[in-house]
Amino acid sequence: MSKTITLTATDGTKVEFIDDVIGSGAMKDVYFSPDKSYVVGFFREPQDANSKDRLTNITGTYRERIFNQVGGEYWKNLFCWPTKMVEWNGKIGIVCPTYHKHFFFGSGNFKGKEKEGKWFASAKLRNRFLPAEEKGTWLTHYHMCIQIARAVKRLHAAGLAHSDLSYKNVLVDPVTGKASIIDIDGLVVPGKYPPDVVGTPDFIAPEVLETRSLKIGDPNKKLPSIQTDRHALAVLIYMYLLYRHPLRGGKVNDLDAAKDEELSMGSKALFIEHPSDKSNRPKVDQLSKSELPQGDVTKLPYSICGPYMKELFNRAFIDGLHNPTLRPTADEWEQALIKTTDLMQPCQNPNCEAKWFVFDNSTKPRCPFCGQEYHGQLPVLNLYYSPKKGVFKPENYRLMVYNKQTLYKWHVNRFVTPNEKTSDEDKKPVGDFHFFNGKWILINRRLDSLYDKDLDKKIEIGQYVELTEGKKILLSTEDGGRLIIVHYDKRTM
Q1: From CA 370, how far away is CA 23, in angstroms rounded?
Q2: What pLDDT score was predicted for residue 131?
Q3: Structurally, how many domains does the chain consist of?
Q4: How far lies 385's CA from each of 184, 335, 379, 451, in Å?
Q5: Residue 293, preceding bond cis, omega within 30 degrees?
Q6: How far is CA 294 from CA 42, 118, 121, in A?
Q7: Domain limits at 10?
Q8: Per-residue pLDDT tens for 406-415?
Q9: Which of 104, 146, 272, 346 is 20 to 30 Å from the Cα of 2, by its Cα?
Q10: Which of 305, 316, 333 is nearest to 147 (CA)?
């Protein structure tokens, strides 16, 4: 008969758990609280003084800096952060909130099990094991990646590195587009708390593998850090969008399997889609049926992710692969992902699994996943900003229009950014687009200073303006307000 254990945490509060192991990870055994609102995980191995101090700061100082401030509630959804530390039978334990219910499979072979990120980052696993209702859409995968990038950005802003960022330590839900970073107890504080692990295979930065044989204290030895987190983050995003690993291709660097692995992920690591060195392209004839078509980089190249993402993937896996200082930051990933969602178009094929694709002027308007061509007029809104009154300059930012699409404050004003600081007021839709009686229109819902610049006419709330070729629409007269110029892709007319 299981019994309830009552302990006093290091912060003086009461902690209860049922003496029945519900799960075991690489380092901890986990127990439920009586009401299942939190879990207690006890380390199987003794923790030294440095580890205890790290856990004390993670559950105390670092947690307070992130959560006990204005907007702190937002981060509780993006992290499963340890809240307390306890001791029991000579073992150190940490208390963590229970995962949200949307992070558990609701159907299929894994019903009731955690949605560990690996199930959604591999074509083989997705295609073989996941029911359609658990896969989400390509757009929700972008939303997942935004949340992961945003969470990593927050860690790095606090001077912390996760050290073991991988799909094993991220929970995702493609249905809702939610994500949460877990296993926070190994955080690295540069110069204070060294890493406990070097990372998870597939996500370890090349420089860490390359210098793994060097002794601790050797100035040339590279250990997990913010820069290695940036590599892992890039790998995660690539895998969640393309369902393959960016470095695992067809090139063999050594006949010995272990040596080949170390070289292929370390000193000889090469992007499978490198534009000039094609020696690591995946050999399609060696891929299993379940790895296709996603494993074929000629059919689904990384360029389908759009221009903003392609640029960052180049920096991550070409420029920065062996030069950590050149890797994109988490903030850059967040911004590129957000801007890319504004280039999304719903696929017109109702049976398309992806449901969405990124429109890019360099390609034909065709869904890359199912091949469905886009039929109908396709308005493209080019956004302009005003460095000074009466002057507008292009912003390298476009908004693709689709029926019933929503316009938000961050589209209207360049000083508003959709992130953790966005107010509830700024999250409200300010307008929406419709295809009505054969015409594309923008309906003003909440904008006080929307103007048709061609007619010098104010568009009142509740009124609409037609999106005709070359139409200039001032979205706001406020400081930071944008101008849009309508352009129709001639190939869709």
Answers
A1: 40
A2: 93
A3: 3
A4: 40, 17, 19, 15
A5: yes
A6: 40, 15, 11
A7: 4-97
A8: 999 999 999 9
A9: 104
A10: 333
Residue pair 93/32 in contact (Cβ under 8 Å)? The answer is no
DSSP assignments along 44-104, one per residue: SSPP-HHHHHHHHHHHTHHHHHHHSSTTHHHHTTTB----EEEEETTEEEEEEEPPPGGGB
First to last CA, the chain: 72
Residues 91, 107 within the same domain: no
Q: Specify the DSSP class assigned to residue 379.
A: E
Side-chain half-sphere CA neighbours of 131 within 13 A: 9
Q: Which pLDDT belongs to residue 491?
A: 58
Q: Facing residues of 8 across strands? A: 14
From CA 357, how far away is CA 137, in angstroms rounded? Answer: 10
Q: Which amino acid is at 77?
A: N
* Biggest CA pair distance of the chain: 79
404 and 331 fall within a common domain: no
Q: Look up residue 234 and give its two tokens.
A: 């890039």
pTM above 0.90, yes or no: yes
| 302 and 282 within one domain | yes
**Segments of the chain scoring below 70 in pLDDT:** 1, 196, 361-363, 490-493
Q: What is the CA radius of gyration of the chain?
A: 25
Q: Encoding tokens for residue 258?
A: 């272990």
- Select from 460, 433, 440, 437 the least CA-distant residue to 449: 460
pLDDT given for residue 51 in this prediction? 87
